[in-house]
Give the backbone structure.
Amino acid sequence: MTIPLVIDTDTAQDDCVALLVALLDPLADLRAITMVAGNVGFDQQVRNAFLTLNVAGRLGEVPVHTGCRRPLVRDWVSAENVHGDGVGGMSMDMAGHGPQAEHGVDALIRLAAERPGELSIVAIGPLTNLAAASVKDPDFARNVKALYVMGGSNNGHGNITAAAEFNFYVDPEAAKAVFRAGFEITVLPWDPVTLRHALFAQPALDELAALGTPISEFFTRACAATLEFNRNVGIDGSTHPDSLTAAALLHPELVTRAAGYHVDIETAGELTRGYSAMSWGIHGLTENATVIEEIDSAGFYRYLRDLLAKKTTCRLPILLPDGATIG
Ligand code: BDR
Ligand code: CA
């Protein structure tokens, strides 16, 4: 039995890897990719999604829908200082390849309504599209089977400020609305889970690069800028929260500890914009999410290694900045 899902993404670096998970894992039935404003320029994110479809050998098979091009009320904040263009300068001929006419928010609403209670969504960017969909269609949250969210920190370090993780910081009003909308939410936080269980140090990265497949080469290039940024801020390795979120939906056995929490997002704080207040059950608040606390990190690494070892055939050559190609 496959799992029907949509990935809502700000496609750069590990968002690409999360798409590879959903495109190549036989358990995944990826129905659409919806794009939200986040990591890098919006149109670059769209190109990054098509590049990923191409390297997975799935170009033309999964529709890409552009969603909200800016947060609900705030100006867009980029993470280009972290990710560069999100794919290490790789490109392809986009002629004949582009997003669908249908807006991403409408696609989310339609796909959930077509099979009420069956569609899962993996949201790995700011939650703007999910908030807009739940306002536009009062049945949306009920129609979605499971919403897996990469965002926030479980009373730990932020990454864009001391208090906040990027996805919730960029659109805190959307994140607040989503946690109040009635979804069945599972959260994969930055700290501690990403930093402890989805961090690949150099020996692991060397092993992945040595696989020698088109997707392992794509992975190494797409992750290089973020790896350098991480090292400059004291994180010794490549971080993979988005692909872990997708993998956790498909393979719940990777989740070794999770608990019910009340999650709310700070929108008014002077220093804490986007902070995720995760209350663990002793403050009299009703649970509205399951928060992942621990992952089988060796199992996750093996899972990604096996994924990147798959031999795919690019439909179009992927152009590298030095003039060479993949595929
Ligand atoms: C999150 O922010 C983005 O830069 C990553 O893609 C991930 O979704 C981590 O804070
Ligand atoms: Ca992301």
Notes: The first strand starts at residue 3 and ends at 9. The pocket of beta-D-ribofuranose (ligand 1) is lined by residues 14-15, 39, 79, 82, 124, 150, 159, 165-167, 190, 241-242 (CB under 6 Å).
